[in-house]
Amino acid sequence: MATEIKAPTFPESVAEGSVAAWHKKPGDSVERDELIVEIETDKVVLEVVAPEAGTLAEVLAEEGDTVQSEQVLGRIGEGAASGGGDKAEAASEEKSDAEPEAAPAAGGEAHEVKAPTFPESVQEGTVASWNKQVGEAVKRDEVLAEIETDKVVLEVVAPADGALSEIKAEEGSQVASEEVLAIFTAGAGGDATPASSEGKAAASADDGASDEKVGDKILAPAARKLVAEHDLDVGKLEGTGKGGRVLKEDVQKAIKDGSAKKAAKSAQPSGAKAAAAPAPAVEGERPEKRVPMTRLRKTIAKRLVEAQQTAAMLTTYNEVDMGAVMDLRAQYKDTFLKAHDTKLGFMGFFVKAASEALKRFPDVNASIDGDDIVYHGYQDIGVAVSTDRGLVVPVLRDTDSMKIADVEKGIVDFGKRARDGKLGIDEMQGGTFTITNGGIFGSLMSTPILNPPQTAILGMHKIQERPMAVNGKVEIRPMMYLALSYDHRMIDGKDAVQFLVTIKALLEDPARLLLDI
Question: Which of 152, 221, 232, 463 has its CA 20 to 30 Å from the CA of residue 13?
Fold first, then answer.
């Protein structure tokens, strides 16, 4: 008896969705609760899992189709995948006839490796790097390539154990949603196709699309790009790849330990100009180099300029005595670490103080949508995180109901995944307020820029001891300047000032956070 696979029940605000990707094909065996298909709405991507174990017998809604809440997407039949074996085999033979060049040397099945399905707001992406080369053995779900969009870096993983037999989109190429990036051969890899792998690498080296020889070193494309960006001495790099090939990891290690820096006024090795092709350098007493702006950096620049051009942005300042928070932190940091397995920082206090203040001043928690004002009955606070690719703002959801330990764990997790480029697009959308901390870099005072469509952003700064008048006496106190930038179209100056004063009061007497006063 066949079991129906249905779309999830959409929220009231979501009318329909589209089938983003099927993870199984007709004839494939599935386990209960295994991910089968993803449905993309205008807000989130929903996962549909198998209601029963069996074989995917029929797909009723193809990728790209628009579906309604609880619509039947496909059916699961009883038994293993053998029932669909003939269909799968026929499809495999047909694909093999159509694309003989992708036929695996070891006789395995060929798969197309496609770019992920981009959300509607993302038009295209750039192939940032290939982590595997043609002929190199890989495991199922191992990362093959990274696609950089104007929001996040998306990973493309191997569909099975095997190897890449052909790369169709080289590093730096512009790719569209679901565009074919490479041909993957299941069951190949390692010693199965070494000759073809080396032959292809040698052939493509002539046009600069793959490995390139610089001096006596052979550089992979990703390594070549990093060498150019950081202006390294190629002769000092140690290659750990096949035949002494310099890999991306080798260059990253050299950057970290500083072992490949060029000597002052040293001559550039022959062939280095070719390696620096993506970022041509002008040498001499006044050296320059030109590096293409990344997609993420372009988007950041565009949004910041738009924020300044479209909002009536003002900034109000105040200062907060951090002594009470620092004393509390010093008293309980060891106990906190043992109880929650995370360190007690300052951001937890600021997020909780901001959540309380946002409840008291709903205008600061609102956003502008055209000619409408949208008041949010929840507090979703974005926390700005700095990465090598640029600034990203992942969002903590429902911070009012979060404990300080949950906030600290969330921020640590965001920071790690942001630096690894593994944040999801949905994790950086929908915030109602933002906090940015320039103090970790030593900033004493700055003016943060709004993160549209939000109407306010709080800037934290360095804690610095200063002489302050306390009860008629001069005392040295740990002080921090706070800056609140706000959209004057939405927020009056009085509300902005009182909002900041509320945060100041909550931080200077943290007991208020517990007593809700």
Answer: 152
